[in-house]
Design goal:
alpha+beta, Glucose Permease (Domain IIA), single chain, 2 domains, 266 residues, eleven-stranded antiparallel beta sheet, rod-shaped
Length: 266
């Protein structure tokens, strides 16, 4: 250092050279340069730390755009399939209304190659058998309108196919009557039965009426045979309007077709 001015001398010697080159840098300039170098290094480190993920995300943008385009196409196909399914269901429902009920195999004719839906024909109004007054066993047909037996009683020997009671296809709004006199044990809405009425009769009998559109009795109410319980419908686990009619004795399901003999024929 000369003349009292503080400086830093940097000597550069190239390999094989006979002379060296010296650079004299003031201390203040040296400190400024060093500070700038440190700040630049820090900025570089921060830039890599903060902007690295952004750069990597930006590199994925084309792939994400292609994925969004694929999902959009898939969603459009799903909407088209859903619309087609709705149309098929609407056509199926219209066909069911035209024929009156499902076409199902006759449980009494397992060897038949043609599916049939046996008709349940009730007695005309005014010709029904005289119904008892007060509590009585369930012996009467619960419908006034002509219906179609779409599913019969299936025993518990095959649990996967068990179906207590019978299903009778009738239009929505058909009167549903008590098969016998008794007490309304329960009314409500069930996931499977839909809107239902459960009656209690003498000698351990109970009757269940499911998939109703309206319930016209109250819990605890005493009714006689033939009293109107509600109107048929399509509620609960049901694919078309029908009445689910079930008879139980001491908690065991009984085929209604073996107990109720009035008002129907095949």
């Amino acid at each position: 250092m000369r003349g009292g001015r503080r400086a830093v001398t940097v000597t550069v010697h190239r390999d094989g050279a006979l002379t060296s080159t010296s650079y004299r840098i003031p201390v203040a300039g040296y400190r400024i340069g060093l500070t700038l170098a440190v700040v630049g290094g820090l900025l570089l480190v921060l830039g890599v730390a903060f902007y690295g993920p952004i750069v990597r995300a930006a590199a994925r943008v084309p792939n994400l755009e292609r994925e969004v385009e694929r999902l959009t196409t898939d969603n459009e196909r799903i909407r088209e399939l859903a619309a087609a399914l709705d149309q098929v269901e609407a056509n199926y429902a219209q066909l069911r209304r035209m024929v009156g009920a499902d076409i199902v195999p006759d449980p009494l004719r397992p060897g038949s190659s043609l599916p049939v839906a046996p008709a349940i024909i009730v007695l005309p109004q005014g010709l029904q058998a005289e119904r008892e007054v007060g509590a009585s066993e369930p012996r009467h047909w619960p419908l006034d309108e002509r219906g179609y037996l779409t599913r019969g009683q299936v025993g518990v020997a095959q649990p996967d196919e068990a179906h207590p009671g019978i299903d009778v296809a009738v239009p929505i709004g058909a009167l549903v009557r008590a098969a016998g006199g008794g007490t309304v044990l329960q009314t409500g809405v069930d996931r499977a039965y839909g809107s239902f009425v459960l009656l209690e009769h003498p000698n351990g009998y109970q009757t269940m009426y499911g998939h109703l559109s309206r319930i016209l009795v109250d819990r605890g109410q005493s009714i006689g045979a033939g009293a109107v319980l509600g109107r048929s419908g399509n509620t609960g686990r049901s694919s078309a309007p029908h009445l689910h009619f079930e008879i139980r004795r001491d908690g065991v399901s009984i085929d209604p077709m073996t107990l109720v003999r009035e008002g129907w024929k095949r």
